[in-house]
Amino acid sequence: MGGDGRVYTVTSAKGGVGKSTTAANLGAMFGASNRETVVVDADLATPALTSHLDCSSSPSLHDVLAGETEVDEALVEHVGFDVLPGTPGAAAFAGVDIARLRPVVGTLRERYDVVVVDGGPGLSHDTVVPMQLADRVLLATTPDEASVEAAATTAEVAERVDARVEGCVVVKVTDRDQLDDVRRRLDAPIAAAVPRDDAVPRSQDLGKPVVVAAPSAPAAKAYWALAGRRPETD
Ligand SMILES: Nc1ncnc2c1ncn2[C@@H]1O[C@H](COP(=O)(O)OP(=O)(O)OP(=O)(O)O)[C@@H](O)[C@H]1O
Ligand SMILES: [Mg+2]
């Protein structure tokens, strides 16, 4: 993956299925591949990248979407890539205008080689716009039926708005047979199968993507395969 698209949006209608984890790890992997990369927290209602990546969120994308701050002010440097974080809370959410995301992503497209957009859960204008702005949409799902169903619905919505689905990232896989079920139910190629791995939440507790904090962990190896690059520690 990579090279044929600049803006990747990681999304699914369902919550808690690995969207932010995948976005953060993609950011770290593209960054480590010498591509100027930014990860945008477009989960406007419940932004979580600041906790995944232990970075500050003041000012944030919310301030930019409220028309109060320029993009430059809100960008935060992380290790090897930049982050455009969001601010949790009702006050920040109430002030945003999602229509402003288009020019924001347009600016980032000009500045960065790769823009990774972390989408929020649900299907609404707020989650469809990030799909429309993407060159490639990546679906995130766990192997359970409800999650795969939500990914399938998300893929249909993406198709309806002419967004291009690159594939799905299946997280918390415990058994390869689960992937056959995903293939049967979801009309999108499996881009990565990431095993359930405690190294993922442990890395998040350290404020780092697992590909950085524990590059040899099984989940990290699966993510590195997604980026077409093997960990140097292998
Ligand atoms: N491969 C994995 N192994 C174990 N735990 C994982 C794995 N991938 C993600 N998790 C955990 O699952 C939880 C949900 O992941 P994440 O926050 O990435 O999902 P999300 O889809 O972004 O959620 P939300 O919809 O709330 O934004 C997190 O606690 C994360 O640590
Ligand atoms: Mg998330």
From TrEMBL:
Keywords: ATP-binding, Nucleotide-binding
One annotated GO molecular function: ATP binding
Domain of life: Archaea
Family annotation (InterPro entries): P-loop_NTPase, ParA/MinD_ATPase, YlxH/NBP35
Gene3D superfamilies (UniProt xref): P-loop containing nucleotide triphosphate hydrolases (3.40.50.300)
Pfam family, one: ParA
PANTHER family, per the entry: ATPASE INVOLVED IN CHROMOSOME PARTITIONING, PARA_MIND FAMILY (PTHR43384:SF10), SEPTUM SITE-DETERMINING PROTEIN MIND HOMOLOG, CHLOROPLASTIC-RELATED (PTHR43384)
Stated name of the protein: MinD/ParA family protein
Source organism of this protein record: Halomarina rubra
